[in-house]
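in:
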């Protein structure tokens, strides 16, 4: 499971920082001086936080940058910004409209969920879609291989078919204090082009009718995933359950529901907590100046417009006296 998380994060970081490798700029303004600015633009990877991330170096700046990313990511997820639009930009950056529509998500909004199989009305812990990620490219067949959010382990055997590839979502119900029922949702009908899917679904229907719970298709040891837009869970949290047994296979709303009785190993553990740094906590506590870390593109737009207004002369008297680190 952690390989999937690492892959997703590395893809994001590499795409961002590789594309910006030529924009790693350091602006120096010595304390107590009114001298001009020194702008060093790197033409290739060879230094700075972007290059360090590409090389997976664990420098202090890298740790704080990753920490800051997760803090912003998790905080932004708590707000509804659907009504805000970008309408232009000025010397201070991007201009937004309808900013008064910004509101924090309420518990009532967050706790709504689609109908799920729950005949005994057990409390529902979370609902997670089983998303697919591109992780490999097969040059022989010229197609991408896909991984899923759901990860399962088995007792040292390779099944004929991997049912996790067909699961559309996972639902966790909590009938007891230290246990859980994890429901795996599988389409009750296969598409006309899915021959392998049709075989799996046909076997599941047979197991349901004969009330069999033993098959290499459904014998699973653990169920594990990380949350991504899950109901009743923040993003990037770990869910892991040890399977006792498969209770039953039920038919509900066009899906076959595989209900596993499980013991809880992890029930929404924040995976980003390990990235938190004491140094960044201290900086936020003293409300470090916003100009310590600014958006490079906003700064460049600001400087260019000042040049146009002042006949290509920079007003160095108004520069921040601190060292400005762009990260």
């Amino acid at each position: 499971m952690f390989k999937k998380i690492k892959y997703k994060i590395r893809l994001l970081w590499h795409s961002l920082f590789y594309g910006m490798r030529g924009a790693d700029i350091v602006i120096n303004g010595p304390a107590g001086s009114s001298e001009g600015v020194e702008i060093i633009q790197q033409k290739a990877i060879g230094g700075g936080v972007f290059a360090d991330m590409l090389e997976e170096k664990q420098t202090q700046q890298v740790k704080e940058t990753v920490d800051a990313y997760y803090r912003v990511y998790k905080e932004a997820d708590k707000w509804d910004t659907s009504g805000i639009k970008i309408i232009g930009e000025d010397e201070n950056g991007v201009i937004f409209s309808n900013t008064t529509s910004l509101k924090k998500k309420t518990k009532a909004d967050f706790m709504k969920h689609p109908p799920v199989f729950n005949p005994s009305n057990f409390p529902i812990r979370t609902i997670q879609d089983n998303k697919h990620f591109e992780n490999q490219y097969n040059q022989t067949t010229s197609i991408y291989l896909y991984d899923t959010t759901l990860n399962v382990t088995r007792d040292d055997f390779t099944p004929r078919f991997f049912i996790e590839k067909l699961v559309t979502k996972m639902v966790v119900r909590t009938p007891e204090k230290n246990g859980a029922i994890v429901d795996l949702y599988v389409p009750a009908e296969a598409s006309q082009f899915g021959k392998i899917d049709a075989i799996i679904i046909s076997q599941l229907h047979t197991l349901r009718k004969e009330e069999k719970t033993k098959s290499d298709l459904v014998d699973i040891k653990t169920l594990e995933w990380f949350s991504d837009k899950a109901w009743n869970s923040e993003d990037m949290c770990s869910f892991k359950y040890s399977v006792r047994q498969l209770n039953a296979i039920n038919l509900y709303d066009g899906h076959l529901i595989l209900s596993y009785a499980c013991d809880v190993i992890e029930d929404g553990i924040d995976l980003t907590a390990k990235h938190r740094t004491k140094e960044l906590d201290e900086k936020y506590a003293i409300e470090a100046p916003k100009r310590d870390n600014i958006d490079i593109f906003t700064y460049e737009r600001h400087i260019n417009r000042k040049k146009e207004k002042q006949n290509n002369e920079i007003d160095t008297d108004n520069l921040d006296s601190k060292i400005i680190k762009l990260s």
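note: The radius of gyration is 26 Å.
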